Every structure is written in C-alpha cells, then in structure tokens.
Amino acid sequence: MFEQERMSIVEYGKKLLQSNHVTGSAGNLSLRVSDNLIAISPSGIPYAEMTQDQVPIMNLDGKVIWGNFKPSVEYRLHLEVYKNFEDVKAIIHTHSIYASVLSVLRMPLMAVTETVLMISEQIPVSEYANAGTIELARNVVEAMKKSRAVIMANHGLICAASSLKEALNMCENVERNAQIYVLALMTNLPVHIIDSSHAKEAMEFLRKNYGQRG
Questions:
Q1: Catalytic annotation, pick one of 74, 80, 121, 175
Q2: Helices then strands, each counted (H, E), the chain
Q3: Average pLDDT, the chain
Q4: DSSP for residue 195
Q5: Distance CA 143, CA 160 (A)
Q6: pLDDT at position 56, please?
C-alpha cells in the first residue's frame, strides 16, 4: 500500500540525517497520501536503517491502517497540522542546531535576509508543551497560522509544505538564516532586520517572480 510514498519517507529521512538536521532517529516526517491518510516515519527507527516496510500508514483519526510498526510519538502533531491546513501535503520536523538555539531562547527568526521572506515575514516560536502531547500539536497549529515554518519552543523546527522536497528546502532555508542570526547576535553589534514595509514589498516580488513559472 502506497509503496512509493513510503519509499519517499525513507529517502527524505536519510536526507535529513545526511544534512545534519537530525541524529539517529530524532525528528520525524510525514506525507499525505490521500485526503484522510498519511505515511509517517516509525518511532525509534534510525534513519540509516529504516526501510519502506517499517513506514506505517495511518488515518487522520490516529489509527494505523497499514503496517506493523508504531508511528512517530509526534503523530498527533502531524495529524493536527493536516486536519487544520488542507494545503499541507508534507511535514518535516527537525532538531536543526541553530533553529534549536532560537527555540531555547524562545526567539523568533526575524527577516535577516530576503530568503526568510520566501516563507514569512518572520518565523514564529510556538508556546511550549511536552513532546507527543495534543497541547504541543495545538500550539504549533496556532503558530502555523502565521507561517508554514514554526520554531517549537525548547524543541526544534517544523516545516509544512506541498511536498517533502519543498518542506526540506524550507528547513534548509530556516536553518541557514538561523545560523546567520545567531552568529550576528554573538557579535554584540546591532542586528539590522529588514523593516516591515520593505519586507512586504519583497514578499510580493518573490511571490510573483521567484522560480520557473509559465
């Protein structure tokens, strides 16, 4: 069942590992395979060892309908995002270093470069809740009303997109800009943020012109 989609979870899990966004089996990812079904990474299986047969399929009610492996302990987080945002087709949650630094500072990622504006005017921090809880899921959903990328307080980063490729690109974008921001803050010099009026102009320009459009 949904063999190609389960293979994509394995493929992108390895990409997360290779790009140092996660270690071992940390973080998680999922892919919407139909209106009411998702493929999600299994709990506690290292990405380097994961196979497609270990990737469960579950419905948005939280029931595993295919597979013998438990889904990620963060499955509630994924389900709540899918239920609240119909445009979201893929989700990646990482423990990327610099995004995690901002998460423990409870500091949103500001528009330090225009590439942040390809996602949002700023990347917000969701309120803290314990891992795996419905409270955490709801806190992330609330923050995601402002941005499809959210820094999770004392936890990491989550990016929701139309595909796993786009979600990974968002994670890379946020992490690179988080690194720039953290290093800039370490200088103790003024950090200049793109002001709101310029940010809105840039976002509109990027929306209309960035990428290959027919």
A1: 74
A2: 6, 8
A3: 96
A4: P
A5: 12
A6: 98
Task: Specify whether 74 is catalytic.
Answer: yes
| pLDDT, tens digit (0-9, with 9 covering 90-100), for 4-17 | 999 999 999 999 99
- pLDDT at site 213: 62
The 3-state DSSP class for residue 7 equals: helix
Express as a percent the part of the chain with pLDDT over 70. 99
- In the structure, what pLDDT confidence band is assigned to residue 214 with cuts at 50, 70 and 90? low
According to DSSP, the residues that pair with 90 across neighbouring strands are 31, 161
60, with CB counted inside 10 A (0-12, 13-18, 19+), is middle
The predicted-structure confidence for 196-210, as pLDDT tens digits, reads as follows: 999 999 988 888 888
Distance CA 201, CA 214 (A): 22
Can you give the three-state secondary structure of 18-76, one letter per residue? Answer: HCCCCCCCCCEEEEEEECCEEEECECCCCCCCCCHHHCCEEECCCCEEECCCCECCCHH
Residue 207: CB atoms within 10 Å: 11
Q: Computed from CA positions of residues 143, 132, 159, 94, in that sequence, does the dihedral angle turn out positive or negative?
A: positive
Distance, CA of 131 to CA of 123 (rounded, Å): 20
What is the C-alpha to C-alpha distance for residues 169 and 51, in angstroms, rounded to an integer? 23
Token pair, residue 20, equals: 């140092």
